[in-house]
Amino acid sequence: MLFKKGVEELVDDVKSGRLDEDSVVSYFKERSARLNPKLRAYISTCTVKGNNGPLHGIPFAVKDNMQLNGTKTTSGSKILENYGSTFTATAVKKLLDNGGTVIGKTNLDEFAMGSSTEYSAFFASKNPWDISRVPGGSSGGSAAAVASGMVPFALGSDTGGSIRQPASFCGIVGYKPTYGLVSRYGLSAFASSMDQIGPLTKSVRDAALVGSMIFGRDLNDATTIDKKINVMNTLENSIEGMKFALPSEFVKGLTSTAKIVLEEAIEALKRLGARVEEVSIPSLKYAVAVYYIIAPAEASSNLSRYDGIKYGLRVEEDSIDETYNQTRDEGFGKEVKRRIMLGTFTLSATYYDAYFDKAQRVRAKITDELLKIFLTHDAIVGPTTPKTAFKFGELSSPLDYYLQDIYTIPANLAGLPSISVPMGFVEKLPIGLQIMGKRFDDSKILQIARAYEKVRGEFPMPNIDDDGGEK
What we know:
Elements: H1 7-16, H2 21-39, E1 42-49, E2 59-63, H3 90-97, E3 101-106, H4 140-147, E4 153-157, H5 164-170, E5 173-176, E6 197-201, H6 204-214, E7 243-247, H7 256-271, E8 275-279, H8 287-302, H9 320-331, H10 334-347, H11 353-376, E9 379-383, H12 398-402, H13 409-414, E10 418-426, E11 429-436, H14 442-456
């Protein structure tokens, strides 16, 4: 039952000779082929082998908004449906250089704009715990692939919670590093001041291992920082004596059952010798509004490159303007169009001061309030999501979707490291505990998450092998 093994265990098995690297890749490719028709986690499959290295023989999946030379990179959009990558994203290349093998490009909400993968231009991925429910988004395909054991780990991108929210919905670990630690070169841009690549894994140790391999300065991304952080060195250290903040704003929206699960997680942290103090962060109530002004504004600028001239879909019309307009009309889905229009509106000369400039000022206020918490606390803890995975079609309005990221957005606005780790079940569906730290405190949040993971005990995998597969 290789699908239950994590990255570290598989690395040890291959290194010791207990497993052959080719057989490991073949096993996960076969499992993916068998389960993908049910879960629809992949947009496309491939076999791109890396060099000799510590991940030699270890397969992984890549969210299909990251370039991988020789494969299609669609970003979940019809405008890039037939676009072939001519280079490889830095984060993906680093994992290939470490020996990994890419076996699939995973589904996502179009251009990473969504919280369910329902906004993919091709199809919706499904949650392995209940296929009538969403896996989250926008990295829903990556989360479903890891949770079901189709791959030991996958890469996702996180602009407002798109790694952590699907990790919570699917009962796995999702880690968003500090903004600037991981290169965004080769990632389709959504909101450049918040986009960040990170791993989805079965365990915190695996998240730390994979994360450490993709850190580093990249001359192709001016926002990256040359900062040495060894997250593995302190991973198993005690958290005794640490002090955590639990924002009251993160508790108000929970159901009574979810509050019980959160209380049990808080008690587990206290048993480890940590203190947990409830605090108030007043500006958090503005986080969603601020995000949905800034992110669409940046998206409207970033997506202007898709014009039917340079690459991707081209709808021929009589004039350049008509070609441009018709290409974008046919190529973009409704959520992407909605955000482009929102962003264009808030960046217009008439409304810039009233919306975008004001949102940036409130963003700075939220960041300042978060940083003040870290002067007296080691981390901020709370639920990753206000609820568990919802059913397809259950949420009808865009605002309902936007509120799914209410607890995860603050980390992106402030560029902070954050991780979601499974903490329990609400009506048989998983829900995650989020741990957020100050910038470059990645080692500390991973240490806290690992300590909690050990006291929580092993978290089960969903049983989706009802078609004769391994049990």
